[in-house]
Amino acid sequence: MYLNRTIPQVEVDAVSEFLFHLLTGDVDKLSTQTLVHKFWNFFGHDHKQSAKYLSCLRDWRLSSEKCYHDIGAYCGQRFGSKPLERHQQCRQLLTNETDATTAGLAPAIARIFHNYRSCFRTYRHRVDANCTNVLRKLIASRRVRAAKVVRATMDSMRPLLLSLPTLRVIHLVRDPRAVALSRIRFGPSGRGLYSLQTRKLKSAVVAEASLYCRHVTADIRSRLALEREFPGRILTVRYEDLVANPEQHFRDVYRLLDEPIPKATLDEMQKKAHHGKKMHLSTKWQQNVTYEEAVIIARQCAELFRLLNITAVLI
């Protein structure tokens, strides 16, 4: 069992490469999995600018879910649901680093990967014939392009900062106790599944918070080094500060971009921040974390609390 998975360099580089092609609008170099991912539909209401592309995907019934049907059973849906060796093997097979037919797999398993590739090849022909040009024109029409990435780390940002002089990075962080509560309430797909499988940590809140702290502390260390190398191109935003003073932080974001903030955007963001404040999203954890859990989290997240200037309140 592994609580703190070290991300291999090949994955760090893959994230950088993916974001480079996405931000530069090089659609032909984006994977088919990206072009037909279910999140286009899932988050369609949040990205009105991509409505035309989403409409095309729906018209041609292009969604990646069908292709993943058998792969999920073999490779697992989350890190930790299968042994680490299985995850590594699946990454190599799914990214064509290894030929599934010569990887020593049983014929039935090799067939799963063959069907996976065949499924996406079919989708690639269909999406290229009907929809990719819509996405290409959409990206090209936008002078400012933004991508929200949840799984990426700051280690993936250095190649992008080197190759894209106009790139700006916003590092969003949040109190680990609030993150833990949010992940647990969201469901299995939103939490670190392997953190819940350990027998040493009986509390899901402690497990999730501890995992988040390890990852974000490492990210902050990387970010501090990048800030010295690329001054003025990285902004850190803490969720709790944003909710408390939305206008100031939104203006900071647009100042980083050297862009005027549109009034309609400011009004909408203030509305969302007000909703978060009204729902007590930054303090709700205090009613859902026991004293014992708070003590353990304060100890295991001490370095992160120091870096974020957070007081480890014990309830």
Going across the biggest sheet, name each strand in turn. 1-2
Mean pLDDT: 88
Structural class: mainly alpha
How many strands, which pairing sense, and closed or not: the largest β-sheet? 2 strands, parallel
Distance between the termini: 32 Å
Overview features:
315 residues; Rossmann fold; 2 domains; two-stranded parallel ribbon; 17 helices; 2 strands; 58% helix
Quick rundown:
This protein is mainly α and 315 residues long. It is built from 17 helices and two strands.
What do these coordinates show?
- The protein is mainly α and about 325 residues long.
- The protein has two domains: about 25-140, no CATH class; about 170-310, P-loop containing nucleotide triphosphate hydrolases (Rossmann fold, 3-Layer(aba) Sandwich).
- Helix content is about 60%, strand content about 5%.
- The chain has helices at about 10-25, 30-35, 40, 50-60, 70-75, 85-95, 105-130, 130-140, 155-165, 175-185, 195, 205-230, 240-245, 245-255, 265-280, 290-300, 300-310, and strands at about 170-175, 235-240.
- It has a two-stranded parallel ribbon.
